[in-house]
Amino acid sequence: MEFISNKLLFISMFWLVILSPLVCCQLYYNFYDTTCPNLTRIVRDNVWSAMTKDTRIAASLLRLHFHDCFVIGCDASVLLDDTDTLKGEKNALPNKNSIRGFEVIDTIKSALEKTCPSTVSCADILTLAAREAVYLSKGPFWSVPLGRRDGTTASESEANNLPSPFEPLENITAKFVSKGLEKKDVAILSGAHTFGFAQCSTFKPRLFDFDGSGKSDPTLDASLLENLQKQCPNQVDSDTNLAPLDAVTTNTFDNMYYKNVVNNSGLLESDQALLGDSTTASLVNNYSKWPNLFFRDFAVSMEKMGRIGALTGQQGQIRTNCRVVN
To answer: Which of 58, 94, 203, 326 has fewest C-beta within 10 Å?
Structure first.
């Protein structure tokens, strides 16, 4: 009996080690504690400074992290500029004239290179900047496992396949699943649309020609529809106009997004589509009622997303300039 109990104890300890987020994917919460102890403060100070100058930047930094992780993996490939031998991701259709925040990452990287040179990866900076952007916008705080290294390549073609607001929910879900996430994560990470703005081109078909009908989306709240048609008139030159993803608490990270969706006031078609599936609809309803539940689950999903395709150990490199390979 003693042998059996010891064996069971060994097995349970083995799985505790295997499943612990401290060791999973060779990412560690204390990775830079000795090599760059001021890392978190430097990132937070610079994100806060950027937010005081540009109210949109917090949402942009979170989106930048998302667009990085969903292409190749969380390896800072999204930050690479085009060269004669490398076609980057910045000019991919979902990114061109859309993703932003590169200068904030540059500023953080420059500060870190002075404090702890050739130590902190651009991929880890992106991950931490996204966390700080959410936290400083009154959202949840979560511990970020670190130790990612930077990739040496990029993929414009894969960036062109990022989840799109025009896709059906099942297509978006399939893209999440292909990255090791679940349908639940679709509903949770869509909650990032609780702050920030979207270009009119990403939702204008809902206003004037929904599904080729020549009419507006019948599910869209009438008052919101009227306001959006003023912000985004039915002409090409309004495509780059901006509208808040959450018109109620535009710059605050909260659960208002889910309340909007429940009230048929989700801005993007993909937002409102969450009510068309029983699993995601149940999550939307729960998060609309219990903000703390949303905050908890969002933190978990963000950590999961931050592990997608992470390079660790001797893989990749630590770029000294986030825009170019060493």
So the answer is: 326
Instruction: Quickly count: other Cβ atoms within 10 Å of residue 20's Cβ.
Output: 9
Residue found under tokens 């010891």 = 6
Residues 252 and 60: their CA atoms lie apart, in Å, by 13
Contact assessment for residue 127 and residue 51, using Cβ atoms and an 8 Å cutoff: no
Predicted confidence at residue 25, as pLDDT, reads: 58
Torsion sign (Cα): 315, 318, 322, 326: negative
307/41 Cα distance (integer angstroms): 22
Specify burial of residue 2 (Cβ count, 10 A radius: 0-12, 13-18, 19+): exposed
pLDDT score recorded for residue 4:
46
Which tokens go with 293? 């539940």
Tokens 């414009």 locate to 156
Active site residues: 67
pTM of the prediction?
0.90
Angle in degrees, 0-180, between the axes of helices 57-69 and 122-135, rounded to the nearest 10: 140
